[in-house]
């Protein structure tokens, strides 16, 4: 009886060795294609050309893998250097965080609520706090501004990557005619909610937060 060809002989090439880096890269691609709900070790194994159990040699559980994905995203935030004025560093850091959310839109809902209580995560928090404290030296006020900035960034990034026109819809959504007849303020504002206006809106929020921190 003929043997079933192995993945190696069928492909005609030697598979790449499995590594944490390859697994993370494949998992990020899978999440981008199928969202977090579609991430499974079975599907990941299919992408990597290995058995699902092989992944557990590198990540003991799915939560360990999810932590690694969050760390990868957070590590991609390009924080400004210390040679930049403190206020400019704060602005740049906020824009850099938003950039990360848009690079990983399908992953960001997890990043947004993750406690970041990994070595990479707490180092990231420490770095952001240092930027805030360079603008707001007072320990308590700096902590409060850090949290306020976090509220804004998470909310804005969730809305831009998963919310506006992408979130769950009503079973029977109202029509534009209904809005025009009953919601004049919404009708008058709707054009400014479009994606083409997001940059201006985000910048407005950044400047409001900077003024509050430096006022």
Task: Summarize, please.
The protein is built from twelve helices and no strands.
Plain-language structure description:
Residues 1-12 have low confidence and may be disordered. The protein starts with 6 loop residues before the first helix and ends with a helix. It has 215 residues and is mostly helical. The protein contains twelve helices and no strands. Helix 6 packs antiparallel against helix 12 (198-214) and helix 9 runs antiparallel to helix 12. The chain is 66% helix and 0% strand. The chain has two domains: 15-60, Orthogonal Bundle (Arc Repressor Mutant, subunit A), CATH 1.10.10.60; 80-164 and 174-214, Orthogonal Bundle (Tetracycline Repressor, domain 2).
Offer a few descriptive terms.
Tetracycline Repressor, domain 2, 2 domains, mainly alpha, flat, Arc Repressor Mutant, subunit A, 215 residues
H/E element sequence: HHHHHHHHHHHH
Helix content: 55-70%
Number of helices: 12
What is the CATH architecture annotation of the largest domain?
Orthogonal Bundle
Report how far apart the termini are: 81 Å
Radius of gyration: 22 Å
Uncertain spans, ≥5 residues at pLDDT below 50? 1-12
Per the CATH scheme, the topology name of the largest domain is Tetracycline Repressor, domain 2
Number of domains: 2
Look at the structure and name the CATH superfamily of the largest domain.
Tetracycline Repressor, domain 2
- What class do helices, strands and sheet pairing give? mainly alpha
Q: What gross morphology would you assign?
A: flat
Described by strand count, sense and barrel closure, the largest sheet is: none
- Tell how many strands the DSSP assignment holds: 0
Q: What is the CATH C level class of the largest domain, in words? A: Mainly Alpha
Please tell me the overall pLDDT: 93
Q: Bin the strand percentage.
A: under 5%
